Amino acid sequence: MRSLVGASIVITVLGTAWVTVGAPARAADLEAGKRKAEPCAACHGADGNATVPGTPSLAGQHVYFTHWQLIKYRDGRRKDPQMSPFAQNLSDADMADLAAYYATQRLRPRPAITDPAKVAEGKRLANLHHCASCHRPDLSGQQQVPRLAGQDYDYLLRLLSGFKAKTVSDLDGTMTMAAQPLREEEIVALVHYMASVGTQP
Amino acid sequence: MRRMTLTSLTVAFTVASLLAALAWAQQAAPPTWKQGQPPSMADSTLAPIPQPPAPKAASEIPVDKIRVPPGFKAELWASGINNARAMTWGDNGTLVVSSRVAGNVYAIVDKGGQREVKVIASGLNLPNGVAFRDGTLYVAEISKISKMPGIEDKLDSPPAMEVVYDTLPKDLPHGWKYLAFGPDGKLYFNIGAPCNICMPPDTHANLSRVNPDGTGFEYVARGVRNSVGFDWHPVTKQLYFATHARDWLGDNEPSDKFDVVTRKGQHFGFPFCHQGDILDPEFGKGHSCKEFVPPLIKTGPHVAGNGVEFYTGSMFPPEYKNRAFLAQRGSWNRSEKIGFRVMMVTLRPGAAPKYEVFAQGWLEGQEIWGRPVYTKQMKDGSLLIADDYAGAIYRVSYQR
After folding, report:
1. Digit-coded pLDDT (tens) for A129-171
2. Cα gap A132→A139, rounded to integer Å
3. B366 min Cα distance to partner chain A (Å)
4. Which of B210, B319, B226 is CA-nearest to residue B268?
């Protein structure tokens, strides 16, 4: 048996009027999100701009992306020794608030030393592998697809290598499939390119 | 000697070219949803509709917008069920609901007008298929079928899932399954094509079945791109199924299909022939559509026909008996959206089936607020409709 979500939701009907007890979903609360993000700040930065190499910045990430990743950390499909424990006790509302808070924060691109030759090769590979068809031409991402522009070099390298190794779970298999034909040096070139892109918000 | 050398050189060169071509083809593979897009459509902005990570709150669900025939009424039956998909009834009245990307299986217990939603399994791999038999719940994920015996007595402490059958393909594209018990007591499911359009391996693009103990696997229908909804006619016991057609051949073709299996092993056309009369521009070469079973109904281009269910209840007017409800989750690969409705099919001996709208209203102009994906008849003859986009279940009833 995989992890169980303890929360159950009781929905009551009174005549034709519906009363929802313990509302399962409601509009995200930015203020609550800011407060709930306090325990995350040590690694991800108070405003979602991380400085620790290997830790992703969450500022400017799309609501659907952050929310889905938190769900996957909570139910164990995505695992990380540091992140998984934090996600265990998050409610659906916590996730919605956190995702909404980080989406409204302004991203400061992570500093990266990139090799122009690798950046050029990475750009060619990104084109060849249709990265822009989901991540958009400026790698700003959309909906459930993460922003890559301005993200941390070490994190991008770890994730893309993990997709290739099938040790990172993605929502519908698209990234795992996309990473399979990549050679190690191609992954490095792609990450050089991604890390070089994007000072735009 | 010289000739031999040349020959081996030629072979070596050919092999090298083939490998290079293969490597190139692999490297150039776009994401599945974009695969098969012709260069003329390269600038298209069409893309699959993203699944929201959270269900809509009951107060955000405009159930009044659902339009049903005169005398029928649609109401919100349950909400807050993230990504609610297929439904199956337990012997003691528990409704088990599957999901896809949410990875959950839910149990809904109706306690005197109070409906309680519990998550009985989570973190699963696209667990779209759920089926009940003799107190045991069967769950189909991408590459395996598992069971939870006696689950209805243990909803608050669900038992471990026991693997029934786990040698199914691991491909994620079209790898999620619909699961149902046939009249023969076997578990039926789909193994979809692992692509938008491709020559599928012999193991894919079919409907299959296996005994509930995991023995006796066999193919039932071939050439089925992806069918995630099927049911058996209450009288003839024949298997009827919906199929999603390929994308990127334009707004109006090919049509999705509603098909019937009349003989085990029949071929329904994929990837050679679409909608019974269009040869695939690439894979149709050298074939004729006459080689394959034609569809019973062309259900419409890109409508995304999911749920199929024959009506056997007595609440609806008598003419509804044995009609099939087809839930259509709605299009993405079309300039103007289509689908997002529940259709109904009346089979007529010696005449073309009647195909008409039963429930609609989730699509307003080009905006959607929900996606009807599966139906499930209730004991009293009313009809539940699951909406995976809003994470809700509606109930349609009829009053004379």
Report:
1. 999 999 999 999 999 999 999 999 999 999 999 999 999 988 8
2. 7
3. 18
4. B226
**Rounded average pLDDT over B119-144:** 97
Q: Do B160 and A181 touch (CB under 8 A)?
A: no
Nearest-CA residue of chain B relative to A175?
B31
Count of CB pairs separated by less than 8 Å, A with B = 145
Condensed to tens digits (0 to 9), the pLDDT of residues B69-116 reads: 999 999 999 999 999 999 999 999 999 999 999 999 999 999 878 899
Q: Do B173 and A99 touch (CB under 8 A)?
A: no
Q: Which helix (H) or strand (E) holds B365?
A: none
Nearest CA in chain B to A5: B119
B251 shares contact with chain A (CB less than 8 Å): no
* Distance in angstroms (rounded) separating the CA atoms of residues B81 and B100: 12
**Which two three-digit tokens encode residue B340?**
């997002």
Pairing of strands B218-222, B266-267: parallel
Q: Which of B37, B116, B161, B394 to mutate to test the interface with A (most CBs of A within 10 A)?
A: B116
Distance (Å) of CA A87 to CA A67, B197, B261: 11, 38, 47
Q: What is the pLDDT of residues A100-122, one digit of tens each?
A: 999 999 999 998 888 999 999 99
Q: Extract the tokens encoding A59.
A: 């500022």
List of domains in chain A: 25-103 (1.10.760.10), 116-196 (1.10.760.10)
CA distances from B195 to B47, B79, B243 (A): 15, 33, 14
User: What are the structure tokens assigned to B368, written together?
Assistant: 């959607």
**ipTM of the shown complex:** 0.88
Domains in chain B (CATH in brackets) are 63-398 (2.120.10.30)
pTM, rounded to two decimals = 0.90
Question: Which residue from A18, A68, A99 is facing B76, i.e. has the nearest CB?
Answer: A18
Structure confidence at residue B28 (pLDDT):
62
- pLDDT at A63 exceeding the cut of 70: yes
